[in-house]
C-alpha cells in the first residue's frame, strides 16, 4: 500500500468514527505532515484522495474541511468551524498599541470623547458628589438600581416591547452583558453561531468560555445571510447565537425589519437563543430608531444587550441586558464575578436621565456623527484607488474599507502605527485567512488638516502595496 493510501485510510477512519465532525477544519498540509511524520507530498496525495471520495472538501485559502451529510465536494456549505478560538492576545496587543494620546485614533472603538461629553451629566455628578448621603459604599446587589432599570424598561415599552424593570439586569458595560448572557446560556464545548465578521468582544467571550464557533458569511445586500444561518442550525447542535444587527460593528450595516422578522421565525422554528449586541442602537441617522430583534421575539428567545458607552462614555461602565426569564441566572453569575455595578454612577445616570437631557444630547451626537462620517467618506472616495471599496452605511461612526485582496490589513496597521496613526485591521474581527484585507476607520472626528494628512498617509501606503 502506498504511504498516501495508508494515511488516507487512517484519516477516513477518524471521519467515519466521528472524531472529526462534519465541516470541521482539517490540520493544514504542513501541520499534518509534522503530526504524522509523512512528507508534504504524501499528505497532499492523501487529502486529494479523500476529496475525490467526497469525504472532505477544500475552500480557497482556508484549507480542507470534513464534508457533511448535506455538503458534498460540489456543494460545500459556506460556514466556518472554529473549535479553538485564540484572539485575545492579538486584541490585547492591538489595544495597548493604540492607547497613547499621540496616536491618531482612527482605530479606536469609541466616538470622539468631545462628542460624548455632556455638561449636564457632569453637573449632576458634581451635585450628587457633594451630598453626604451619596457616599454610600455598600455595593448595590444585582440586578442594579430600580429607578435605572425602570427608565430602561420604559424605553423598551416606547418601542413596543413590553418590559418590566425585573427583566433588566444592570451590568458593567455592554461587554459584561454579552459575557454574562453567553455564560448563562452555554457550557464549555458548546457550539455557538457568530457572524464571520463581528466585534472582537464576541470572539473573546467565546475564547474565555471555551466555546466552538460556527460562523456565517455576510450577505452582500442583507448583511446577514439567513440561508447560511438555517444551514448552520440544521447541521450543527447550535443552541445559542450572538449577533449584531443594528449599525453592525465593524461593517456598519443595519438588517431590515423584514429580515429580522425572518430571523425571529428561524429562531422560533429551531429553538435557538439569540444574544443580541445592540450597543450602537442610538446612533442611527434617520427619524426612526431601528427595531431590535427583541421586538420580533414572541418566545423569550432573545437577550438584548446594550450600554451607555457609545453615547455618554465607556468609562462609566454601565450597560444592561434585557434578560427576561434569565435574569436570575445572570444575577447569580454577577454575584460570583463583578458583584455590583458602580452605585454612584447608577444614581447619577438615573438623575440625569430623569430630566430628559439625554434626548437632546443624543440628537446633537447623531447629527455630528452623520456630518463627520460623510466628510470622511467623501474625502476617502476621492483619494483611495478604485481597487478599494468603501462600505458606507447611514449610522454609527465606522467606515469599513475593503482593500485589494492581496493587501493584508495587518501590514497597513503596522506601517501606519510607526507614524502614530491607528486603524483597526480585519484580524480583530474575522478569523478567516482569506478575509484579512479590510480595515475599520473611526470617523467620529471633525476632519481637520492633521486628520486629512493621516488619511493621506493611509492612501499612500495602500498605493504602495497595491
Ligand atoms: C459591538 C460592541 N459591542 C459591545 C461593546 C462593549 O461595550 P461596553 O464598552 O459598553 O462594554 C463594544 C465596544 O466597543 C462594541 O463595539
TrEMBL record:
The keyword Zinc does not apply. In the C-terminal section; belongs to the class-I pyridoxal-phosphate-dependent aminotransferase family. This is HTH gntR-type domain-containing protein. Keywords: DNA-binding, Pyridoxal phosphate, Transcription, Transcription regulation. Residues 1-69 form the HTH gntR-type domain. GO terms for molecular function: DNA binding; DNA-binding transcription factor activity; pyridoxal phosphate binding. InterPro entries: Aminotransferase_I/II_large, HTH_trans_reg/aminotransferase, PyrdxlP-dep_Trfase, PyrdxlP-dep_Trfase_major, PyrdxlP-dep_Trfase_small, Tscrpt_reg_HTH_GntR, WH-like_DNA-bd_sf, WH_DNA-bd_sf.
Amino acid at each position: 500500500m502506498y504511504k498516501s493510501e495508508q494515511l488516507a485510510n487512517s484519516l477516513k477512519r477518524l471521519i467515519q468514527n466521528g472524531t472529526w465532525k462534519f465541516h470541521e477544519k482539517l490540520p493544514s498540509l504542513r501541520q499534518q505532515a509534522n503530526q504524522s511524520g509523512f512528507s508534504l507530498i504524501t499528505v497532499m496525495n492523501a487529502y486529494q484522495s479523500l476529496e475525490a471520495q467526497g469525504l472532505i472538501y477544500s475552500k480557497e485559502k482556508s484549507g480542507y474541511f470534513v464534508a457533511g451529510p448535506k455538503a458534498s465536494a460540489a456543494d460545500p456549505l459556506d460556514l466556518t468551524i472554529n473549535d479553538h478560538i485564540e484572539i485575545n492576545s492579538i486584541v490585547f496587543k492591538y489595544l495597548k498599541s493604540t492607547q497613547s494620546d499621540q496616536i491618531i485614533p482612527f482605530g479606536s472603538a469609541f466616538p470622539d470623547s468631545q462628542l460624548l461629553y455632556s455638561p449636564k451629566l457632569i453637573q449632576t455628578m458634581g451635585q450628587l458628589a457633594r451630598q453626604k448621603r451619596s457616599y454610600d459604599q455598600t455595593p448595590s446587589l444585582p440586578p442594579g438600581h430600580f429607578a435605572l432599570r425602570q427608565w430602561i424598561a420604559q424605553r423598551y415599552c416606547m418601542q413596543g416591547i413590553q418590559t418590566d424593570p425585573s427583566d433588566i439586569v444592570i451590568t458593567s458595560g455592554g461587554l459584561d452583558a454579552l459575557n454574562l448572557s453567553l455564560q448563562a446560556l452555554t457550557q464549555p464545548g458548546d457550539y455557538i453561531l457568530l457572524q464571520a465578521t463581528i466585534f472582537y468582544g464576541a470572539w473573546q467571550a467565546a475564547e474565555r468560555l471555551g466555546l466552538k464557533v460556527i460562523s456565517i458569511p455576510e450577505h452582500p445586500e442583507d448583511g446577514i445571510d439567513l440561508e447560511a444561518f438555517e444551514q448552520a442550525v440544521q447541521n450543527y447542535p447550535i443552541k445559542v447565537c450572538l449577533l449584531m444587527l443594528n449599525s453592525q460593528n465593524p461593517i456598519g450595516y443595519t438588517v431590515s425589519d423584514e429580515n429580522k422578522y425572518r430571523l425571529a421565525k428561524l429562531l422560533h422554528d429551531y429553538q435557538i437563543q439569540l444574544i443580541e449586541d445592540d450597543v450602537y442602537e442610538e446612533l442611527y441617522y434617520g427619524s426612526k430608531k431601528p427595531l431590535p430583534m427583541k421586538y420580533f421575539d414572541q418566545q423569550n428567545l432573545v437577550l438584548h444587550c446594550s450600554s451607555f458607552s457609545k453615547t455618554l462614555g465607556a468609562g462609566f461602565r454601565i450597560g444592561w441586558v434585557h434578560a427576561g426569564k434569565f435574569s436570575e441566572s445572570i444575577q447569580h453569575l454577577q454575584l460570583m464575578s463583578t458583584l455590583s455595578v458602580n452605585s454612584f454612577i447608577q444614581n447619577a445616570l438615573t438623575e440625569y436621565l430623569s430630566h430628559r437631557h439625554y434626548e437632546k444630547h443624543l440628537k446633537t451626537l447623531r447629527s455630528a456623527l452623520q456630518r463627520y462620517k460623510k466628510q470622511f467618506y467623501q474625502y476617502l472616495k476621492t483619494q483611495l484607488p478604485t481597487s478599494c471599496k468603501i462600505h458606507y452605511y447611514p449610522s454609527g461612526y465606522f467606515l469599513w474599507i475593503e482593500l485589494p485582496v492581496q493587501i493584508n490589513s495587518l501590514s497597513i496597521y503596522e506601517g501606519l502605527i510607526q507614524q502614530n496613526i491607528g486603524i483597526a485591521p480585519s484580524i480583530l474581527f474575522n478569523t478567516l485567512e482569506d478575509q484579512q484585507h479590510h480595515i475599520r476607520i473611526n470617523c467620529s472626528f471633525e476632519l481637520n488638516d492633521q486628520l486629512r494628512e493621516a488619511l493621506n498617509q493611509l492612501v499612500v501606503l495602500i498605493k504602495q502595496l497595491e
